[in-house]
Amino acid sequence: MGVVVRSAVKKLGILIILGLTLQGCGIARNIWDGSLMGAGAPKRKTVVIDGSSPPAFETIFSKNDADALNTLDAWKSNIKDSFNQIQGKKSAYLSSDEIETLVRYGFVKLDDNTERSVARAKCILTLLGFRNGISADNVDALFDWLKTNRPQLRDFYQAFLADKPKLELLFDQDGINSQDLIALLRAFGSLFELGGNEALTPTEMADLLRPWVPDEYPHAKNSIESGLSLTIGVISSLCGDRVDSTHWNGKKIGTCFAELTEHFKPTAPVFDFLFGRLNPFTQKNELNEANARLIRDIKSWLDGHHHPAFQTVLVSDFSKKLDIPPPYNFFKLAEWLPTLNKASTPAKLDPTLFIDLGGIISNWALNFQTATAKENCSLYNWRKCDFKGDYDAADQLYSDEYATLIRSKNLDYIYKISLYDAAAKFLLSKLDSEREGHQVQALVTLVIRLLDSNAYIYNVVNRALEKPVDPSSIEDSTKNIRREGLAELAAFAADIVPERGKDHQGMIRRLARTAVGEGETIPYTVDRLGIIAFLSIYDLITNLREDYLKKYDLPVQVEGPNDYVKRKMIMEALPKMLNDHFPDIYQQCVAWGFERTCGVAYTVLLDSPDKGRDDLQTYEIDFLSLASILIESMMNRCDQNGDGVLESQLKFGFDEKSCMINLARNLVIRLMNANIVKPDPKTKRLMDWVQKIGPVRWAGKVALRKGTIRGLGIQYLPPFSLVSRGATIGSVLSLAAELMDSDKVKAIEAGVEGPPGDPGDELIYLGRLTERYLPTPPISEVYYLEDED
Amino acid sequence: MFLGIRGGVTVLLTYTLALILARPSNAAIEDDLQLEVFKYASERAPTFYLSNSTPYYSNEFLGQMNLYFESGAKGAWSVDPDPVRVHLFLDDTKRNFFWIGREHPLNLTRTQPVEPTSALGNIWAQNQLDALNPRVSGWIGLGLLKSLGHTDHLNIAYSPFFIPTFGPSLGFTNSGEINPSRYARLPPASVETGGVTVPIRYELHTDQISKIVLQNQFFAAITHDDDTINSDIYAYTSPRPNPVPLTNAKLVPANGQVTANVQIDAQFPREDWAGARLQYKPLVFQPALEFTQNLKQYDNHYVSFTGYFDSPQLNPFVVKRTTRASFGMLTHFGANLTDSDLSDFLVFVKLPIELTNELTWRTLLELTLLTQRQSGYWLNELEYAISKGFSVLFAVRVLSGVDNSYFGDWRAEGSYSLGMKWVW
Q1: Which member of A114, A437, B79, B295 lies 3.0 to 4.6 Å from B8 by CB, making a disulfide possible if both were Cys?
Q2: What is the DSSP letter of B178?
Q3: Contact A45 B404 (CB under 8 A)
């Protein structure tokens, strides 16, 4: 037993020792190669240096001056310290190779991709003029520049961040003024002056800038070179031989900007007046002095230096590279250049255009000062002060019967009329009104369209951002035709809106004599007052449109460059619009039955050009305003004695009803030519007969009074027709509605649903508009039902 | 190395001078020569070592020449005469004397020499070329031992020469790279800043050698030694034996590469220390407790405890020689130290055991136990005396430790060795 036990113990002991040995071998190996507590020889340490990062760079442009300056100092100190901590071949200087090495290693990171980071660094250095390297002194100079110009840069940075559309900031009274622009130009000028005399071709510069554009934007990358050529072309025209005409030379451009700002500093008050930020009363002397030298200073800037013309092909090249349609309106306007500026051609814009533009601005200021010579307003918002003086054009164009909520005879109105007056003077000095009168309308429409349409800018931006663009050529779009139609109506309004005094009778006779064929454009009165009226009306209907959208909460849907608003919502707001801005029309429509008169007329005017859509482009609302202005103006022009009723008076040789018939005929033809109302040969024939054939005219006069062509009976025959009662806006509209869409009128009179039309048309049936949307209750009597004769 | 040569030559001359001056009566000389071949875990090729210690002593003179040589690319060598002193007795008691030469003043009054594992030895200049077996170095100068009674002495010393701690070389090259000795503690290889890591190139700057070496050092102590207590209270002033590197770094972009060029300016700032040691002899381990305090940095202080005992007799047939074992502890407390140090709460045991009359087993275990700096060194050596004065040696050295610990830096340098030893 003992032997067995001893043997077992021995075996167990051997097993334990074996186990420990085997395990121990592993431990022993770990101990041997030092890996018991760590694996192998310890690695040599890496020292980690956590530098203190300065605050975000953008803080330099924040509104808090203390924070901004602290950040600027922190960054300057950080970069200067880096110079002390980096040892280049030359003391306090880093060559471009050394900088490239540092960028490759990642000490300076301008992009996640190393090669792009290097390219960007090279770009910054080259553009700043430090192609070969940068010294600590250069860094000092750059930060000093930043400190000096920080207020201007901050203002622009803050403006850039703001919600407002950027262009509006130029015209906002609290926004950027000319001093700011001058300061900014001077700032960038001084920045470029810090660097070396580096001249880069657009190709070289594009190679430098291309790394900054992410690969996701191939169009933007592709168009950099042509965009730069365009920019160089503009600067070259502006600066002349002070800069290279085909190269980007930062230093020379900087010097030019500095000279430019210095040269035009005395005329800054004129530009402030241009942007509405100078009070022309409290700063009258400054404005006078600046205005007196504006043209002289522009000429002296151009004299002595060769200023190359701007090649318009640069714009089309740029468009091609971006693969977008070129700016149609811009090139159409360019066709006018030889007429407006003898030295220019459609392909080349001569810098003497600046003199022409300066002339318009100067005359604008002069017109205003002349008109307001006896006025005074020291308020900050001086444009809101009332105008108490006399200004012929303004007086003739102003009516206190409509649109009074958004327009009053204040200094803002005079300010605008002064501009239009200056523009009219310029155009009349360049154009032969006899031969080219009808084209003036097209020219002015082009200018307005150019200023109004942002389609090209939209396409440039969207293409660069690889978003969908509007590929339509403006030439062939139905929208273009509609806009021309608007111009047609505006031209007509320009004829009849101004109170031309005795001359308006001659104008009516002229309009009556006009024989109009199919699709012919009817010229308007090409005189100073006519051009001013044309521009003023465009301005008024635009302001009315903005007021409608804002006041009646009409939501706008943006699709590409176009804004849309639901047609039904316009119709729902129609009674309020008319009540607020055209009260005479509103009251008359309500008296005659709103749906039967305004309802039908305006639904026809607002016919949707794009069938299948339930909305309209926002500019279509302008037809509503323009038609209303026309109706009011026609009444004003024909209502000789101002009693609100059109009589068949033969006193003084002027028949008010005949006047209305003549003007109405003109209006209907224009509406048909503009495709606003469906062209109808029968209606045109009727219009001609009404004007030319006596008995038909007599019937027309009665119809005017009754507001319908039905049931005229014996009343149309003289002498009854001669002594029939007067027509009013209501009766005119009632008749117009019947002529424009008799089906709708019949349905309304029958009290049933009418034929299907555009969305919103259903509101004119079964009294829906009256029931739900009238801001004031209707008058109980409806005149047209009575037979008063 | 230059320092070593110059120091060695100076002391050699002193040694020679001392030999000439010292009367040869009662002189004795010994020699202890060891030849070993090591196999390191980190290398395939063997490494050869030669160490030689030659003590020479007489009534008036004591000198010991220490030679150390390691072969190979990582090798190093030193010729270190320490101690070397000539006594000029002031009376017949021979308890009062001047000495001139090289010595640690407290070696004259303590029962054991000052060890690197003691509080004072840890902060004193050392010869660390044999990194696992460092030795406290003496001052080159002169001193006075003056009895103040039967048991007390005044012990003062002055040295006009400062010799820093002599350790494994880093071997800086002209291109800024290093070619280090085996146990050199390597400086950082790279620097990371702003998320970028670049290699470091070093450039060593020192003051003029004369400016470093010609610095005054003063030591003063009151010692007490009786049957019960051996104690001393001391204070001294001396440059710090281990340099404080002042660095100035710059990034250098050149030839498409970026390196961090670090200029090291080795400084030896002056330090003032005070301390006390108390050894109580009646207790079984004759424990010695020591405390040192930096007089300018109040958070810089050390404490050590050492106990002594006779090695156990495992083999009753062994004729016992006097073999003393020791154990102890050394620690600093208070401030964080930047570099790993032996005083990171060191505990050690030194145990020589005579297994037979010929065979002796020596084991040394040193552990640093400070949190996150744990490491250990374990030496086991067998010496077999083939004849009187000649023995063969076999040893295993195991090193282990976490990164940034005292022995952990050398954890890949575990080794075994075979050697021969002559003593005559």
Answers
A1: B79
A2: B
A3: yes
